[in-house]
Amino acid sequence: LMFNFSLLILCAGLGKRMSHLTKNIPKPLLKVYNKTLLANTINFFTDIGCNEIFINTHYLHNKIETYVDRNFNNYPIKLIYEPLILGTGGGIKNIFNYTKSKKICVVNSDIFWQKNNKLELLNFLDDFDKISHCKILLSKENNFFGLKGNKGDFNIQNGIVSNWLEGSEVIYYSGFQIVCRNIFDKSKIVFPMNEVWNNLIIDQNLKGDLILSKILHVGDKNSFEAL
After folding, report:
1. Which pTM was predicted?
2. pLDDT digits (tens, 9 = 90+) for 144-157
């Protein structure tokens, strides 16, 4: 069953982990398996029902704007330039100034989504209407490829997410989440999303699902060159 949702693709980072590869190209325009990360993301999510896309930009923003104009000018895409980087949390909060939606999906730009992720993402979106704060998509280490830390990001039990503890199973954030406008009520202008997540965890309001298909995180130069 398809339903419509708004999506923010986070493209305002500096791409520093890509080293020289992003000297003249912003990270979302790097090509993986002959497709740019950005085009792959846009096509994957419009295919599963996304009908409004926001892209926040900063570093080499003109190149992203030109690329979108040239390749996606018939898509419902709004580009939002951040002259000052607002951080992952601030960038998301800012989008609510541009949409009537009380709830949006947010995706990192360095995940290369594949056909076998489709069904699970539709399942993840299934309770979209019931999400009251935030729900994040998580991946176990054995399903997560590309850039990985040696520590986990989160733990999950019965759909409730908590912070990872040393010695527990390594579970990563997959780069996709559903967020509600209300979780930003008390936040500043520039801040990382982790601050909001940490506050939600205290009240057991950070929900999650594990994805079992393979997630490909093209997070740094090594993971890019290993493809």
Report:
1. 0.97
2. 999 988 899 999 99
